[in-house]
Amino acid sequence: MTLISPPLELLPNTSPLIGDRRPTDSSAGMHKHRYAATGQVTSQVPMAGKPEMDAAVAAARAAQPSWAAMPVTERRRLLMRLADLIEADADRLTNLGTIDNGTPQQIVQSAPSLTAELFRYNAGWTDRIEGSVIPTWPGDALDYAVEKPFGVVAIIIPWNGPLIACGMTGAPALAAGNTVVIKPPELAPYSALRIGELALEAGIPPGVLNVVPAGPVGGDALVRNPGVDKIHFTGSGATARIVLSAALETLTPVGLELGGKSANIVFEDTDISTALPTMMSGIIALSGQGCINGTRLLVQDRIYDEVVEAAGRFITQVPIGDPYDGSTAIGPVVNDTACQRILGMITRATEDGARVISGGERLNGDYADGYFVAPTILADVPSDSYIAQNEVFGPVLSILRFSDETEAVKIANDTEFGLAAYIQTNDLKRAHRVADRLDVGNVWINGFNGIPVSAPFGGNKHSGHGRLGGKWGIREFTRPRNIWVSL
Ligand code: NAD
């Protein structure tokens, strides 16, 4: 069996989009981007360094005053128009999503409509960003606070969901009157570049939305540029630390959306067959490469063996393989380095006492040239072991045992992360009680159906701070100015 080749004729221009220019220079070299399912080179992508980042920030700076001063009805119309174009371009964007990082078509096909929705929702905020009138004393004064955009926002996004990341961060930043430089990584440059092209097509003025693919060299140049008023970083804690120390020089504020090690707590009153899809979503969603995946399955004693057995059976039914096969739910991981890291973590887990229920190896045969790790279930994982404490970012589910509610909450909170958690129970009071005690930004009870664009999203502890989504996303990209008028 040969894997289906991706339609590379759909790739956008791979040069950075700076204003309305597509300079072909790449001071940080060219990146040979590979299709994760086959290892095939898809194109050579110019990597931006300091000169390109400086040009992008200058373009964003030049465009910002008039973007912020534009009548809000016009800014809203342009963002709505972009949403329409994203929807009209859904087939191409779905393909680019797969080419970017190997996400199966069946999974990534929902990304364009969600991204369009993020732009549409945030467009609706343009005339709703209100200020406050502040009481004054002893009087004879008017004091009011207005919400202002930061100016130029550098948006650094990860490779695992670049399209949605553009919507989550770019849409509120633009709606609030900022201009942006979006930096997608070398591993997934295409969807973000296409969003930049569609923004120009929508009539958004050049320089308002710049897209500049780069690796660490360009990322560092962007972060250190004094023309950047705010940095929004989505990625790993390790890179966040580098970004934060670079931002120390300019004292630029940094918003952080980082990793997770989310618990999925299964209480003994749960209907196992109903809850299984949610229990297994931690290993399936984005082939295990999602920040919010419930990768630690905490199961109560009495149903522990039954759940372990059911999980082992369930995973054999989940189609893994060619991202272009419409039935595929689990595809490759992003690259060879990821394969090595994931397999290394599985080996270490077994040395720490975990029992392999399924998987544990790289897929060979037809899949040998791609980056496929068999979906892996580990049982009896000690809570203090390396795999229970660190992000795997691959299709690996760790099952842990607990005896009562207090212990479940303790284990769930016992990592440095605090992004998300899941609860499976038929006891309504317990569901709310436990949700209240989890030190995380997002909790899903009895099912995972995504998150509304109007809800807050983000993490606690080492999972970041600040929130995207809803009014919280707008707040992330505005700051108040207080104005006192003596009367
Ligand atoms: P990463 O930290 O390796 O890279 C993130 C971004 O930082 C990329 O664009 C990368 O090119 C850039 N970068 C690298 N070095 C830089 C530097 N010196 N200066 C500036 N930028 C630099 O993360 P990744 O592997 O792309 O993504 C996976 C991580 O992202 C996981 O930890 C995952 O949980 C997290 N993530 C979090 C969320 C969320 O919303 N909380 C969403 C998706 C992914």
Automatic annotation (TrEMBL):
InterPro entries: Ald_DH/histidinol_DH (IPR016161), Ald_DH_C (IPR016163), Ald_DH_CS_GLU (IPR029510), Ald_DH_N (IPR016162), Aldehyde_DH_dom (IPR015590)
MF-aspect GO terms: oxidoreductase activity, acting on the aldehyde or oxo group of donors, NAD or NADP as acceptor
UniProt xrefs under PROSITE patterns: ALDEHYDE_DEHYDR_GLU
Keyword Ligase: no
Keywords assigned by UniProt, alphabetized: Oxidoreductase
Keyword S-adenosyl-L-methionine listed: no
Catalytic residues (UniProt): E257
Region feature Disordered, mapped onto this chain: 11-30
Domain Aldehyde dehydrogenase: 33-482
Superkingdom, taxonomy of origin: Bacteria
PANTHER family: ALDEHYDE DEHYDROGENASE-RELATED
Family statement drawn from the similarity comment of this UniProt entry: Belongs to the aldehyde dehydrogenase family.
Protein name per UniProt: Aldehyde dehydrogenase
